Amino acid sequence: MIRSKDALSGILFVGLGLFVTMFAASLRLGTLSAMGPGFYPLTLGGLSIVIGLLFLGKFFIDRIRNSQISVVDAIHLKPLAIMSAAFLVFSLMSTRLGLFISIILVVILSRLASNEEIVWWKLSIYAVGMSVFTAALFRYGLGLPLQIWP
What we know:
- By secondary structure, the protein is mainly α.
- It has helices at residues 5-24, 39-65, 77-97, 99-112, 120-141.
- The chain has 2 domains: 5-65, no CATH class; 77-141, no CATH class.
- The protein is built from 5 helices and no strands.
């Protein structure tokens, strides 16, 4: 069983990149000046494959040099589950609750994934700040028609 962090990261990135690239291959690419719906996913999938190959290359170079290889001690399920829940909450609630409240929920949920003590006043300031910044950037800076409030 492979326990190297570099090898596992490389396999994950290459696998994700291949999945996204196969999905994007069925979409129209377009051109650089008029990008189609498949252009961005194909670019990210290709970039993910390159990053994965770099991780795998580092793993093999470390094996050849007999360097110290960092291993995965255990898979921590609590942070994985909480971060997955935060992702789902945002994707399901951003159209119902609006961008501002959804970002606040994501920031709070993401913070719960850590084992460190939570300082609620700092977390509140950070969550509101992230919501204001995100709303200003996407709605007013980029002009995207996103729903800010419910």
